[in-house]
């Protein structure tokens, strides 16, 4: 049975005493946008380079459609490296057509695809300009066009939104959603976690070369500590002090944000708040992806 997903299984990579990857394992399903996030040096780029065959892992496998990735498979991947890989003195249109031909398109189809993607990504007016004469944002658009020009079956993008203005971010987001809707597995890394939260079907958080959390944004946000926002205008300072398993995170006027530890009954918190007078708000607050990321990274920072 065909299983058009990208599978990364047990990747390990060491440089001398430095461990870059340790049993890195996750998959990107057909038609899925997968956000790959972590601090600088966490192992994201190393993983992507092994998928592309730029690096060789010490252990582990990369599979697509249930089979090991080969050189032929890698021609089907659209890759956008973090360190941009365009020829600075080559004209935009010529470069895109050339890269399309390297991936197997015939010259007429390559020129046609180059024109279509230059138009779609807003750089058609610069097709006859050298890449080095473009702004960094437009170079970024050309780099994405280079990843898409051969109609890839898999997309692997390293920091594709870096340096883009809001309009370009919207254009790129639309393109990635469109490719996913066509059944393409899309994995991209980004430090813009609000964008990842908004765009991705699933997210993997990487720390020290390992995948330490993976799931939908909803799963990750509900899987952490429980938080409550309570607005009890007549509650005196310290009204939660006698409650076991409750930590005050923040106070803003009459509103108090609380963290509930495992086993703490939120109804006891509500009863205590009501004992002080009226309660205008009592709501569970889910942490943002940025907060989750910060917590995960901090947990590993003292090892």
Overview features:
single chain, 303 residues, alpha/beta, Rossmann fold, six-stranded mixed β-sheet, 10 helices, 14 strands
3D structure, described in words:
- Helices cover 33% and strands 27% of the residues.
- By secondary structure, it is of the alpha/beta class.
- The protein folds into 2 domains: 6-221, P-loop containing nucleotide triphosphate hydrolases (Rossmann fold); 225-286, 2-Layer Sandwich (Alpha-Beta Plaits).
- The longest helix has 16 residues, at 166-181.
- It is elongated, with a radius of gyration of 24 Å.
- Residues 6-233 form the ABC transporter domain.
Helix/strand layout:
Layout: E1 6-15, E2 18-28, E3 33-38, H1 44-52, E4 59-64, E5 67-68, H2 71-74, E6 77-80, H3 92-102, H4 107-120, H5 136-148, E7 154-158, H6 166-181, E8 186-189, H7 193-199, E9 202-207, E10 210-215, H8 217-222, E11 226-231, E12 246-252, E13 255-260, H9 266-274, E14 281-284, H10 289-300
Parallel strand pairs: 3-8, 3-9, 6-7, 7-8
Antiparallel strand pairs: 1-2, 1-4, 4-5, 9-10, 11-13, 11-14, 12-13
Helix pairs in contact: 3-4
CATH topology of the largest domain: Rossmann fold
Quaternary state of this entry equals single chain
Secondary structure tally, helices: 10
Spatial strand sequence of the major β-sheet = 6-7-8-3-9-10
Coarse morphology = elongated
> Gap between N and C termini, in Å?
43 Å
The CATH fourth-level homologous superfamily of the largest domain: P-loop containing nucleotide triphosphate hydrolases
Number of DSSP-assigned strands? 14
CATH architecture of the largest domain: 3-Layer(aba) Sandwich
Helix coverage percent of residues? 25-40%
Q: Output the radius of gyration.
A: 24 Å
Q: What number of domains?
A: 2
The secondary structure category is alpha/beta
Q: Give the helices and strands as they follow along the chain.
A: EEEHEEHEHHHEHEHEEHEEEHEH
Provide the low-confidence segments as ranges: none
Portion of residues in beta strands equals 25-35%
Main sheet specs: 6 strands, mixed
């Amino acid at each position: 049975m065909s299983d058009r997903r990208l599978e990364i299984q047990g990747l390990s990579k060491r440089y001398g005493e430095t461990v870059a990857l340790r049993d890195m394992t996750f998959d990107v399903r057909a038609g899925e946008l997968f956000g790959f996030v972590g601090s600088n040096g966490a192992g994201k780029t190393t993983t992507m380079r092994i998928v592309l065959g730029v690096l060789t892992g010490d252990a582990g496998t990369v599979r697509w459609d249930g089979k090991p990735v080969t050189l032929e498979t890698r021609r089907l991947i659209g890759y956008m490296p973090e360190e941009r890989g365009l020829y600075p003195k080559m004209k935009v249109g010529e470069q895109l057509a050339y890269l399309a031909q390297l991936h197997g398109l015939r010259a007429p189809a390559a020129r046609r695809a180059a024109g279509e993607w230059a138009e779609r990504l807003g750089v058609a007016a610069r097709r006859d300009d050298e890449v080095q004469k473009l702004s960094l944002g437009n170079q970024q658009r050309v780099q994405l066009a280079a990843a898409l020009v051969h109609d890839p079956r898999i997309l692997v993008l390293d920091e594709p939104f870096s340096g883009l203005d809001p309009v370009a971010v919207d254009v790129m987001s639309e393109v990635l959603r469109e490719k996913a809707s066509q059944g393409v597995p899309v994995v991209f890394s980004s430090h813009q976690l609000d964008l990842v939260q908004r765009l991705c079907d699933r997210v993997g958080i990487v720390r020290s070369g390992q995948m330490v959390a993976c799931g939908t944004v909803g799963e990750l946000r509900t899987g952490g500590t429980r938080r409550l926002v309570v607005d009890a205008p007549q509650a005196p300072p310290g009204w939660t002090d006698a409650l076991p398993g409750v930590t005050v995170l923040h106070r803003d006027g009459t509103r108090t944000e609380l963290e509930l530890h495992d086993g703490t009954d939120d109804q006891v918190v509500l009863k205590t708040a009501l004992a002080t007078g009226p309660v205008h708000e009592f709501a569970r607050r889910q942490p943002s992806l940025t907060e989750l990321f910060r917590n995960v990274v901090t947990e590993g920072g003292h090892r």
